[in-house]
Amino acid sequence: MNRRPLPALPPAPRKRRARPGREGRTAALFLLPSLLGTAVFVLLPFAETVRRSFFDGLGRSFTGLANYRSVLQNGAFRLAAGNTARFLCTCVPVLLLVSLGLALGVRAVGRRRDGRPTVRGNVFRTSFLLPMAIPVASIVVLWQALFAQNGLVNGALQALGAQPVDFMGTGAAFWVLVFTYVWKNSGYDMILWLAGLDGIPGELYEAAAVDGANARQQFFWITLPNLLPTLALVGVLSLLNSFKAFREAFLVGGAYPHESMYLLQHLFNNWFLSLDLPRLTAAAVLTALAISGLILALQRFWTKGE
């Protein structure tokens, strides 16, 4: 019996190979508007700031490092730099701990056993994010209502038999600023922590539970090690956001608040109003170098820890 031969299969289509460098040119084309905007509005002004830091007020006579020596010898700069360093070393660790605690609490009470979020969890997330949506002027009114001489806090202290405290005229002003910063930014950092927690595989917790690990052991041996990349991100963003607490302090205390909350932003604002451009540019360059060095050191530490 003769069998008819099977028809020949058509040749497989050749895969088109991307041309070398084509993806790079396409990516560069999409990034070009952003890169141009960054260069025009950020890099070029900063380069001009660096140049002006070595010249006089008119930007014509070269003065070398005289502006930097004047800044470092200035008492107001040393006071503002010390207060800013104290503020960063206090509020950033407190914010990281508070926001992580909020994230763990929301995750514990805001999820069903199957992993789906509950209505209560969504309400908690929204309520903790509300401080970010409150305008600065409203926060200033809240400050005055709480911490004024006849405010709510002093009223509660008098009701308990304690003496009222001049919050904005004593060293307590610094802690009011720390409280405001933590209260306003904890919800934002909580969302970042939640994203990091969602990235941890649930199989790790199931395997640890089978092996007899309790909740504390799972937290220190599974949760914390897997949150190191999130810690790096949250830490850097918290550090940068800490320089945005100036608006509330300026609106409440003015250009010259109590010395405990006199920050670098106050100093820069006062030097700008007096057109002291040589010292202003030199101090801005020193601050930028300090922030960049701190971020690079933290990044190197976290990368080494991984």
TrEMBL record:
TM regions (residue ranges): 26-47, 85-106, 127-147, 167-183, 219-240, 280-298
Membrane protein topology class: Multi-pass membrane protein
Region Disordered, residue ranges: 1-21
GO CC terms of this entry: plasma membrane
Record key words, sorted: Cell membrane, Membrane, Transmembrane, Transmembrane helix, Transport
Entry keyword Protein biosynthesis: no
Localization per record: Cell membrane
Gene Ontology terms describing biological process: transmembrane transport
Domain ABC transmembrane type-1 intervals: 83-298
Statement: the UniProt record of this protein carries the keyword Transmembrane: yes
Major location category of this protein: membrane
Similarity comment: family membership: Belongs to the binding-protein-dependent transport system permease family.
Protein name, entry field: Sugar ABC transporter permease
